[in-house]
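Incident review: delayed structure delivery

Summary: a single-chain prediction request sat in the queue longer than the usual turnaround. Root cause was a stuck worker, restarted by the on-call engineer. No data loss occurred. The affected request and its eventual output are reproduced below so the record is complete for anyone auditing the incident later.

Affected input:
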Amino acid sequence: MTHFPRNIANERSHRVQLNGSIAAALTAEGGRRARAKLQSISVNGGVLELPRELSTGDFIEIAFHTRSGAVRGMAEMLEPTRKFQSACLQPFRFIALADDDHRKLRMALQAVLDRDFLNQVAEPQQAPTRF
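Output delivered after worker restart:
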């Protein structure tokens, strides 16, 4: 069964900052492929660092690896937030995830959030995030 993420207006999803530590493979309409780095991720979407921006509204297939396993889904590209000479930061929102992919993503996010919370309780300095 497929999971269709929905945003709840007054409830913001927890985000995990990855700072480009996770590679993502993208397939755009027409089979065009691209590589990207995940800057942040949540159960609803995330932000990619791309060599060049994709068109706002483009539908893509996205795949990346987590400790819980590979996650694949369909996403819609949103308006880029920052543009640099050699890259841009562009958000996306998931529009469809298989139930198993949604479960793996939720488990990976929860593991990072739990670990970060425990690190903050145990010691005041934050440990690096590993997704």
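Verification: DSSP finds one helix and eight strands in the chain.
Action items: add queue-age alerting; document worker restart procedure.
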